[in-house]
Amino acid sequence: MSFDLLRAAVQDWASHGVLPASLTYGFMVNALLSALIIGPVLGGLGTLVVTKRMAFFSEAVGHAALTGVAIGILVGEPYTGPYGSLFGFCLLFALLVNYLRNRTGLASETLIGVFLSISLALGGSLLLVLATRINIHILENVLFGSVLTVDDGDLTVLLAVAVPAAALTVPLFNRLLAASFNPSLALVRGVQVKALDYLFVVVITVVTVASVKIIGAVLVGALLVIPAAAARVLARSLSGFVALSVAFSSLASLAGILLPVELDLPVPSGGAIILIAGMIFFAAALSRLALGRGQP
Amino acid sequence: MFLEDFVVRAVVAGLGVALVGGPLGCFIVWRRMAYFGDTMAHAALLGVALGLLLHVPTSGAIVLVGVALAGMMTLLLRQGRWGSDTLLGIFSHTALALGLVALSLMETVRVDLMGYLFGDILAVTPENLMWVWGGGIIVLAVLVVLWRPMLSATVHADLAAAEGVPVQAMQFALMLLIAVVVAAAMNIVGILLVTSLLVIPAAAARPFVSTPGHMAVVASGIGSMAVVGGILASVQWDTPTGPSIVVTAFSLFMASLLIGAARRSR
Predict the structure, then answer these.
(1) What is the CATH number of the domain that holds B202?
(2) Which of A51, A125, A232, A253 to probe the B interface (max B CBs under 10 A)?
(3) Is residue B159 part of a domain?
């Protein structure tokens, strides 16, 4: 695979002291590469998630991954990467919730809450039962992420998802934004609001699912929200908003993966990434509060 | 086998949670606070970590974290800069990550993380029972006393404010009540699932009721059915307790959804 060349180059720099010494390990390079893919993509999409107020939805999709993994292991997919059932179940889940949103007479918040609970409950209990048979750490890895097992296959899946997601979202960005600010106006202007809505749901679902291995099912929704929220505090323009969000999200993923290894702390990668993202948000919010209440 | 001590304890504790969860869950559904409940539950892991670090009872630490969370939400929402769902997304994940990192750094204590996350029927001690019923009675009493003003603040905030109801204070009180119930119920259903005992029964009760008070009672009933059914199923088939309760509640919800749809089409 072409990853070998890249990996060899990074390991070479690391052994010459240009990069941190932990990068002499192949699995650390893999983790680093995955952070470089996840960070920008989740950060960029996050600006739309925050604007469209879909934070709870994206969290629910992340949680659904738990059931996706459990079903995958049940039907005999490899438990390090049950991508077939993972993508299948999560897409089904996301489309179903999006379809039911305005059709049951329940507030969409309540509906999402109900479906989020059931996917956690089903996935959790299946995995709790399965984990005693295979490997007790599976559940913890699925919930909170693990960088140590990222292999070439995972990187390929990440790239295969991230590149089309970015290629679809970037040219449609303005239209997606317009559809969320004022749906009826966008509709009048000829924007296919409904189709865009479903497209966006599919994009955030596949990106979220591909990142589950690194960040974990419970925390993966956070990178779609926290960096964008922090960027919104500081940015003065739309492009600044997107750029800052991408930067924050990449910084959090890189630091969250490298720091625990560098400092030799037994912390799950997802926990570290989200904690750093959270610290960035609070630093941004505090600096804004301290600098006065000027218009953003 | 269904009459083992620990099963009876779990059922009694679960019923306590279900009874309070009915009316409280109705407010959560009416006020669209499902995500807030979820956040409060996630933050409970931070409470667990704090409790272990400072050697104070976990339930107390969770309520404290809940108070801090409610305060910060109120403060930051007033800024008007972020949507409430964005703020909740930040708080719920950051608190969970903080709790997780703190727990994994505590080398001296081996905690049963999965027990906290998904509940542990064996962990229901007589002391837990005291917390659940003590906390439950307090929450119920507060709800009964504040029922009218809370309801009017929910139905029409502006009108309620004009009539002299402290709308903000009602919202804050509701947040605190949720924190207390999360702290009490955490051991039975687990942190990740505790809000389902609040949200699902209330959502399932909707098609069958005509008044708010009626909905609260029906929700309590559905919650109790889910608790008893779930615990018995978990003992029978050796499945994890918390998830079994939630799966039972969800099947009741689906049944209610279908009945509601059938009625509307008639």
Answers:
(1) 1.10.3470.10
(2) A125
(3) yes
Contacts of B196 in chain A (CB under 8 A): 113-114, 117-118, 121
Average pLDDT over chain A reads: 84
> Rounded to an integer, what distance in angstroms lies between the CA atom of residue B207 and that of residue A27?
53
pTM higher than the cut 0.90: no
- What local confidence, expressed as pLDDT, does residue A243 receive? 93
B259 HSE (CA, 13 A, CB side): 12
3-state DSSP assignment of residue B163:
coil
Report the alpha-carbon distance of residue A39 to residue B169 in Å, rounded.
40
Residues A184-211, mean pLDDT to the nearest whole number: 84
- Which residues in chain B are contacts of A122 at CB distance < 8 A? 243, 247
Q: Nearest by CB to B199, which of A105, A113, A272?
A: A113
The domain limits of chain A are 31-290
> Which runs of consecutive H residues, i.e. helices, occur in chain B?
5-30, 34-54, 58-79, 84-105, 113-118, 126-155, 157-162, 167-189, 196-205, 212-237, 241-265
- Crossing angle, helix A83-100 and helix A108-131, to 10 degrees? 160
In total, how many domains does chain B have?
1
Q: Which domain holds residue B213?
A: 5-258
Tokens representing residue B145 in the block: 């006393």
Cβ contacts of residue A225 below 8 Å, gap of 6+?
A46, A49, A50, A55, A58, B86, B89, B90, B93
Domain-embedded: residue B198: yes
Average pLDDT over residues B236-240: 84
Judged on CB neighbours under 10 Å (0-12, 13-18, 19+), B212 is: middle
CATH class entry, domain A31-290: mainly alpha
The size of the A-B interface in CB pairs under 8 A is 179
Q: In terms of CA atoms, which chain B residue is nearest residue A227? A: B90
Given a contact cutoff of 8 angstroms between Cβ atoms, the answer to whether B47 and B164 are in contact is no
Question: Does the residue B265 lie in any domain?
Answer: no
